[in-house]
């Protein structure tokens, strides 16, 4: 459907179903919203999908009447593109392993109290966004966990991410006191995903697991049967994307000194690795992982092994 029709449906929906109503009986359905990826309506005036990229996507959101955008992706949101169109951005990044309780209560506060319609996105729109939406709705008592799990199935969330399914299946309403304790003004437009040292340590651990899988022909070894190659590659992509706006000098985004690290090539490689192992192209996966390893060594030589502020 066109953006105009989409906006009309939003307008009518605001009168047919009150914003505070239950979403439990709402039928999740795909909708077309410009060129945004995998957009689904998951509740009254509540939508999930892929990350908006560029002016055209944000113009589609504006034309559809979206007033709040929530990102659970690790990448830095395009806050200014949203702001000039009267849209508030909230950044509450999560991983593929679940939804932390501190994030769940903030999702609840944002979904309950920020102006709608709301568009909640991750990167692709298939896995983390619907999971975060389901947890947020369940946390304010608008969605039964079983229907939240069904939401993931409809959108196409992979069962290779059991932490997301567990987070939705185990979600429950939070107390009004707990939700009210989160000031609306404290919901960040850009979150500090991690400092550089923590992020690099995470990358090292993920890289070790990928090397273990590669050595076993990209099949989980018997003593690490929980490892899923495509999942590990996806987690690596998100770690790199989450660090892409951090300063190599301070390791933070708030106290940025110097240019942010450029992970564009490595992010592309990690995404290619995810596609290769998912398609069973093991030779390609071996070559791509080798390139990632080379990039990591080069980055270490430039940054991690060099002088730090305040050190000789």
Report what the structure shows.
The chain has helices at residues 3-16, 54-63, 79-83, 101-113, 128-139, 145-155, 162-169, 176-180, 196-215, 229-243, 264-278, 282-304, and strands at residues 29-30, 40-43, 46-49, 68-71, 88-91, 118-121. It is α/β, with parallel strands linked by helices. It folds into two domains: 3-186, Alpha-Beta Complex (Protein-Tyrosine Phosphatase, Chain A), CATH 3.90.190; 196-304. It has a six-stranded mixed beta sheet with strand order 1-2-3-6-4-5. Helix 5 (128-139) packs antiparallel against helix 6. The longest helix is centred in the C-terminal third of the chain and has 23 residues, at 282-304. The termini are far apart.
Please count the helical segments. Answer: 12
CATH fold annotation of the largest domain:
Protein-Tyrosine Phosphatase, Chain A
Helix and strand content put the structural class at: alpha/beta
Largest sheet strand order: 1-2-3-6-4-5
Number of separate domains: 2
Order of helices and strands: HEEEHEHEHEHHHHHHHH
In percent, how helical is the residue content? 40-55%
Shape, please? globular
CATH architectural grouping of the largest domain: Alpha-Beta Complex
Q: What is the name of the CATH superfamily of the largest domain?
A: Protein tyrosine phosphatase superfamily
Unreliable stretches? 1-5, 7-23, 249-259, 304-312
Q: Give the end-to-end Cα distance, rounded to a whole number of Å.
A: 62 Å
Average pLDDT metric: 82
């Amino acid at each position: 459907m066109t953006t105009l029709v989409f906006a009309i449906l939003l307008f009518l929906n605001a009168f047919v179903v009150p914003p505070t109503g239950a979403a439990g009986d709402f039928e999740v359905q795909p909708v077309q919203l410009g060129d945004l990826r995998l957009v689904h309506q998951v509740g009254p005036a509540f939508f999930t999908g892929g990350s908006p990229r560029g002016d055209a996507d944000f113009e589609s959101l504006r034309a559809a009447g979206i007033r709040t955008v929530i990102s659970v992706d690790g990448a830095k949101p395009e806050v200014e593109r949203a702001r000039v169109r009267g849209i508030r951005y909230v950044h509450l990044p999560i991983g593929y392993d679940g939804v932390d309780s501190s994030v769940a209560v903030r999702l609840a506060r944002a979904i309950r109290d920020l102006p709608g319609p709301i568009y909640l996105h991750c990167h692709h729109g298939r896995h983390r966004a619907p999971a975060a939406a389901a947890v947020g709705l369940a946390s304010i008592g608008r969605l039964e966990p079983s229907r939240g799990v069904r939401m993931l199935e409809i959108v196409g969330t992979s069962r290779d991410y059991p932490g997301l399914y567990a987070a939705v299946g185990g979600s429950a309403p939070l107390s009004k006191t707990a939700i009210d304790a989160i000031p609306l003004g404290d919901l960040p437009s850009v979150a500090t995903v991690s400092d550089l040292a923590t992020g690099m340590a995470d990358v090292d651990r993920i890289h070790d697991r990928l090397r273990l899988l590669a050595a076993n022909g990209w099949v989980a070894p018997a003593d690490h049967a929980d490892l899923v190659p495509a999942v590990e590659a996806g987690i690596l992509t998100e770690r790199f994307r989450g660090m892409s706006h951090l300063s190599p000098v301070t390791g933070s985004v708030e106290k940025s000194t110097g240019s942010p690290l450029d992970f564009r090539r490595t992010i592309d490689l990690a995404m290619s690795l995810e596609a290769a192992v998912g398609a069973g192209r093991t030779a390609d996966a071996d070559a791509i992982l080798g390139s990632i390893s080379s990039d990591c060594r080069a980055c270490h030589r430039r940054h991690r092994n060099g002088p730090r502020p305040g050190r000789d």
